Amino acid sequence: MEKPDRAATSATTTVAFSVLTKPTGAVCNLDCKYCFFLVKEKLYPGSNFRMSDDVQESYIRQMLKSQSGPEVTVAWQGGEPTLMGLDFFRRSIELEKRFREPGTKVLNTMQTNGVLLNEEWCEFLCENNFLVGLSLDGPREMHDAYRVDKGGQPTFHKVLRSARLMQKHKVDFNILTTVHAANGEHPLEVYRFLRDEVGTQFIQLIPIVERINERGEVGNQEGSRVTDRSVKPDQWGRFLITIFDEWLRRDVGKVFVQMFDAALASWVGAPPAMCIFSETCGDAVALEHNGDLYSCDHFVEPKYLLGNIQSQPLVQLVASAPQRRFGADKRDTLPRYCRECEVRFACHGECPKNRFILTPDGEPGLNYLCAGYMAFFKHIDHPMKIMAELLRRGRYADEVMGILAAEEAKLAQAVARAGRNDPCPCGSGRKVKRCHGAPAVS
Ligand code: SF4
Ligand code: SF4
C-alpha cells in the first residue's frame, strides 16, 4: 500500500528516507480479499500486534532526531492503525512535541479503511493536521466485491460515511483506490464517482497484482502466476488511459491523480515522487509493531529484515549496505528490453515486486504490467510534452486543456475538408474513413 501522498522525509545521513509504520503489524478489522498484509501475521506467532510504548517512543525520537530538513513525516499504516485507539496517537503527538527540533514541522499521515472513524477521531485528525489516506475502490458494488469485514459483510457504506465525516470536520484526505478484476473495466465510473459523488480532489490508483507461488500460496513475492482478482496488464493500461483522457479534458489543476503528477515530473525531468517510477528505490522502509525494520512495505519477509530499531539506529539500518543494494537493484536488474525502452525515463520498470515475466526475447525480470505501462506512457506523451513546456515557461499546466481543444477543432476542420479516401490529417497514415472520419461508435 502507498502512504498518503506527500513529501518524503530526510535524515541526517546522506540518505533521505521515509518510514511506513505499522503499529498493529498486519492486523486489521477487515478481511479484504486481496490484502497481502494479512498473511504477514504468520511472521510473529504469539504476538499481540500492538506497538509498545517503548517502540513508539524510540521510533518517534529517532525519526525526529535524525532529521535535518524543515519537515518530517510520521506515516502510520496497517494492518489498520486506528485499531491502536486514539490514545496511542495522542501520545505520538506528545512525543513529537518532545523530540521535535526547533523549527521542524511534523506532518502526520495515516492510511485507513475508515471503518472506525467517528466524530472524536475526526476532531483529533483535524486538530493535528493529519493527512489521511482513505481506501475506497469506487462505487458500492465495485468496492464491496473484495473489501469486506471479518464476517464477509460489505463495508462501502461505512467508508463513505467516514469520508463525509472527514469532510464535515475538514480533515485533509486522499482516496486510495486499488484497481482489480472488479473495477478494472470501469475506469470512468470509478473516476467520476470519486470526483463527483465523493467529492475528492486527490486520488491514488494502485494496481492489484497478487502472485501465486508454486505451493499455490498468495502473499509473498513469489511465483509467476497471478490470482483472478489481479488487474490484467492491458486492462491496467486502458484504465489509466481512459481516466487520463477525462482528466485532461476537464480536470487538470482541479483533480490530482498521483500517477499523472508523477508522470508529469518525469516529462519535466524532475524526480517523480513515487518510488515505483524512480530509477532506484530503497528509501521507503517499513517498520513493524515490534521495531523490526524491513526494506519496503511490499517486502516484509524474513530475507528483507534489516534489523530492529531498538538495537540499531534507524538511520544506520536505512543506510546499510543491504538496503542500498536493495534500492540499486531496481535499476541494476532491469532486463535489456527495459533498458532500451523509449518510455523507460518515466517507467523505470515500475516496482521490482511486479517483475516476474519474461521479455519477448526470453529474459526474466520484465514487469507483469509492462504492456499497460507501455500503452499509457506512449499515449500521454503529446499532452505531457505540452504541460512540461508550459511549466518550463513558468505557466500553468492546466493551459493544456485549451491548447488541446484548439488542436482538436483544427483537426476536425481539416477532416471535414478531406475526402473519405484521403490520408487522415492527423498523420496516422490511415484513410480518413478509417480514422477521424469513421462513424462514431456509440
Ligand atoms: S520495492 Fe522499491 S519501488 Fe517497489 S514499492 Fe518498494 S520501495 Fe517502491
Ligand atoms: S514500459 Fe515495459 S519495457 Fe518499458 S520500462 Fe516499463 S516495464 Fe520496461
Shape: globular
What is the count of β-strands?
Answer: 14
What's the helical proportion of residues?
A: 25-40%
Strand order of the largest sheet: 9-6-5-4-3-2-1-10-11-12
The ligands bound in this entry are: iron/sulfur cluster
Computed CA radius of gyration, to the nearest angstrom: 23 Å
Instruction: Spell out the helices and strands N to C.
Output: EHEHEHEHHEHEEEHEHEEEHHHHEEHHH
Instruction: Flag low-confidence runs.
Output: 6-14
Mean pLDDT: 92
Number of helices: 15
How would you characterize the largest beta sheet?
A: 10 strands, mixed
Strand content: 5-15%
- Give the end-to-end Cα distance, rounded to a whole number of Å: 37 Å
Which structural class fits the helix and strand makeup? alpha/beta
Task: Outline the structure in words.
There is one protein chain. This protein is an alpha/beta fold. The chain is built from 15 helices and 14 strands. The chain has helices at 53-65, 86-99, 119-127, 140-144, 156-168, 187-198, 233-250, 258-268, 314-319, 321-332, 336-339, 344-347, 370-379, 381-392, 400-417; strands at 18-21, 71-76, 105-112, 131-135, 172-179, 202-207, 211-212, 225-226, 256-257, 284-287, 292-294, 305-308, 355-358, 364-367. Strand 13 and strand 14 form a beta hairpin. The radius of gyration is 23 Å and the shape is globular. The two termini are 37 Å apart. The model is unreliable at 6-14 (pLDDT under 50). Bound molecules: iron/sulfur cluster (SF4) (2 copies). One iron/sulfur cluster binds next to loops.
